[in-house]
């Protein structure tokens, strides 16, 4: 069965299973080599890159749908931090992608998409593309200009990054992106990668320590040519509280 036949067959099933005109597109950010990555899939059909999005079942909540979509499309089956950030509904945003099909195709209907951003450590799971995808890969944000993204997914990624930059001043960032033990320098590089600019080391260290979300460990990072820096971990309870109530000391 070729990719077009696959989609046609899925369209028949989708009309019975999913809500019409509603979809979800999660933007999954990862952090590696001091750079942000985003998780993308390359579809068998048209060989273009897309976000690992999907449709909402008639018997599930929207948040439940996003969790299921991540598992179905990329193999992500463990806990992941998700936050809704926008609605995307331009005319023909999805119809043009499926222009080779007639207008009865489920996927070719006008869809309003709910955008979510997710933060995840790329090393914590193995990507598993679904049957409709050729591959599922982490792509550095710096490489996005070199690839062709389908529909309005470039716009969705840009909006997700802007939202992440806005929220970084009031919400903690890092629990899902850094290893369990990390240095303040590594945490600062994460913030700089998200913000796209350098931060003053002294000011950053003072603010992040005052936030109360870190535990200083009785360990140092070994193996470097310079002084071994202290290691830290996130205080899970205070981190969760800060997600709900904001960073008072920031």
From TrEMBL:
Domain Nudix hydrolase: start-end pairs: 19-163
InterPro entries, sorted: NUDIX_hydrolase-like_dom_sf, NUDIX_hydrolase_dom, WH-like_DNA-bd_sf, WH_DNA-bd_sf, WHD_NrtR
Highest taxon, organism lineage: Bacteria
Xref: SUPFAM superfamilies: Nudix, Winged helix' DNA-binding domain
Pfam families according to UniProt: NUDIX, WHD_NrtR
Name listed for the protein in its UniProt record: NUDIX domain-containing protein
